[in-house]
Each structure stands twice: as structure tokens, then as C-alpha cells.
Amino acid sequence: MSECLNNDVSINPACTMESTAANVHFPRNISDQGCGDDEDDEDESDEGLEAPPMKKKRCRKRPKSRSSAAEMLDFLQSYSEKREKVEEEKLKIVKEMKQEKKEFFDKFLNYLEKKQ
């Protein structure tokens, strides 16, 4: 930053930023107008105060699941049994529909044969 400013003391930045976490600078109090030019009297008091060190934010860990491996196995087993029952019911319905369709076409063909 000093390379950009050429050590010009007349430049008073509102805030500075660094890429490292150790060099954290907080913005100075800026008036409601959004201009920091009229704060020369506050600069003297701000120089003695340093910004408090920022703590790194910790990521929240996912809560551990309350189910054990045995409970998970029981769940998977019951789920697979339910799926098998559903598949059996679907198969039963499909067979019934096929049988009804076969009976319908048999009756229809018999009717056509008698009509001729």
C-alpha cells in the first residue's frame, strides 16, 4: 500500500485491507454523509487504539446422528421388506389386469365368431 501512496501524509484512507488475517484494520467512524474528510480531530484519538484481534470463524459441525448402526440396519431391513411387499402387490395387480384383458378378448372373439 505504501508503494501506491508514495508515503504521502495528506492521504487519509477511510479503511485499509490486507490479505493476511493478522493485519486486520477496521474502518474508522465515518459521518452520516459518507465522507471521512472532516474527521481530523478524531484521528488523534484513533491512533492510540488498536483494533481487537479477530477470531477465526469456526464451521459448525453437523450434529451427530442419534441412530446406531444396528438401528440403521433394522431400518434398511424393514424398508426392503416393505418394498418387496409393494412390488408383490403391483405384480398381483398386473397379473389380474392381464387375466381380465385375456377374458375380455376371448369373449369379444367368441362374439365375433357367432355373429359371422
Brief write-up:
Keywords: Coiled coil. This protein has 116 residues and is an all-alpha fold.
Describe the structure.
- Mean pLDDT is 76; it is low at 32-39.
- The chain contains 3 helices and no strands.
- The radius of gyration is 40 Å and the shape is elongated.
- It has helices at residues 2-5, 40-48, 69-115.
Index terms:
single chain; about 120 residues; mainly alpha; 3 helices; about 50% helix
Oligomeric grouping of the chains: single chain
Which ranges are low-confidence, i.e. pLDDT below 50, for 5 or more consecutive residues?
A: 32-39
N-to-C span: 103 Å
Question: Beta-strand percentage?
Answer: under 5%
The SS-based structural class is: mainly alpha
Q: Calculate the mean pLDDT score and round it.
A: 76
**CA gyration radius, whole angstroms:** 40 Å
Number of β-strand runs? 0
Sequence of secondary-structure elements:
HHH
The level of helicity is: 40-55%
Number of helices: 3
Shape: elongated
Report the sheet with the most strands, covering strand number, pairing sense and barrel closure.
none
Topology:
Elements: H1 2-5, H2 40-48, H3 69-115
